[in-house]
Amino acid sequence: MDKQSKKEIMFERMSEKKKEVKIVRRIVLIITLVLLIVVGIAGFQAYNYVNDALKPVDPDSEKVVNIEVPIGSNLDSISALLEENGLIADARIYKYYVKFKNQADFQAGTYGLLPSMTLDEITESLKTGKVYREPLFNITVPEGLTIDEIAENVIAKKTKFTAEEFLAKVQDPQYIDELMVKYPTLLTDEIKGENVRYALEGYLFPATYAFYEEDPSLNLIIEQMLEATEANVVQYQAVLEEMEKTPHWLLTFASLLEEEATAQSDRQTIASVFYNRLEADMPLQTDPTVIYAMGEHKERLFNKDYQFEHPYSTYTNKGLPPGPIASAGASSIQAVLDPANTKYLYFLADSTGKNHFAITYDEHLANRDKYIGQ
């Protein structure tokens, strides 16, 4: 073989090697690109998954999920509990999130959490032992308001609903029936009594209510108040059964104290007066029932007003009125069940609102002359 042929063969081999190198490089490049794409897609998917797991599970949910965190629970078990109940998307991510935020010292207890809560809100709840969530707005129902006053002074001023819409809702027979099924222990047939003005009068608990949506429905507003009343009444169910009394009796009695009393001690003492008068078969003769019966606010009642015939008037009728005359707070409810031990049968309030009590009618007249001047 001559030198020329050897060179040609060498060049051919070199060309082939170059081609092979190019092909290998191209393959390596393609593989690298594929791997980068795969890693990128996986990273993007992982990023989206983690990002979604850091958000509320259901931002629009108003459903309360009750969970029990046992004593001695660690972060692993709490994270798993939250995921099992649909409150977080991923237990591992929540665990890492909590560690990253350097949060600890979760408290055991029962919690009513929502899938719409953020991880921070859930964490804060578990740390403080109470449900923490930032409300969009609050509604405050002061103690001693009637349903008419709640409609006009609370609902009409704080929500998109008019007083008339609210009153129509709380008087809707079908809705009342639905509520009686939903709250069977609290709402009994007594609320449909022949002379009861409003079925839900006295059942809308005075408190501050937090709402997490801009336009809560009337159903949600009303039922949140009913749930608060149920929580404050049902805890005394055993006591009521022992007394052979009902929640309606308790709320009716408590509403009288709410309208008459100015302090906790007064509530308990006034409760004793009412008990004493009931036992003595005397009419309760409490002015707020006359005002409620007349359906208009009055700063002062006159003799003719006390003769006003109406089922709610405790001047013309013995015993409690057909139903509550206002929404009573926890102090009044407790006072009914824990009255002072007295023999008082009479009381009156002076110009400052302070109540003065008496055992006999003569003592009562003396108090009237001394503190009222008539």
Task: Characterise the protein shown here.
Belongs to the transglycosylase MltG family. It is found in: Cell membrane. There is one protein chain. The chain contains 15 helices and six strands. The protein has 374 residues and is mainly alpha-helical. The protein has three domains: 64 residues, 2-Layer Sandwich (Dna Ligase, domain 1), CATH 3.30.1490.480; 97 residues, no CATH class; 134 residues, no CATH class. Helix 2 crosses helix 3 and helix 10 packs across helix 11. It is elongated. The mean pLDDT is 85.
Structural Rg: 36 Å
Total strands: the figure is: 6
Termini separation comes to 147 Å
Q: Runs with pLDDT <50, length 5+?
A: none
What keyword list fits this structure?
single chain, 374 residues, mainly alpha, Dna Ligase, domain 1, 3 domains, two-stranded antiparallel sheet
What is the topology?
Blueprint (H helix, E strand, L loop, with lengths): L2 H51 L11 E5 L5 H10 L6 H10 L8 E5 L5 H10 L8 E4 L6 H12 L4 H8 L2 H10 L25 E4 L6 H16 L3 H7 L3 H14 L3 H16 L7 H8 L8 H4 L23 H8 L8 E4 L5 E4 L2 H11 L3
Antiparallel strand pairs: 1-2, 3-4, 5-6
Helix pairs in contact: 2-3, 5-6, 10-11, 10-14, 11-14
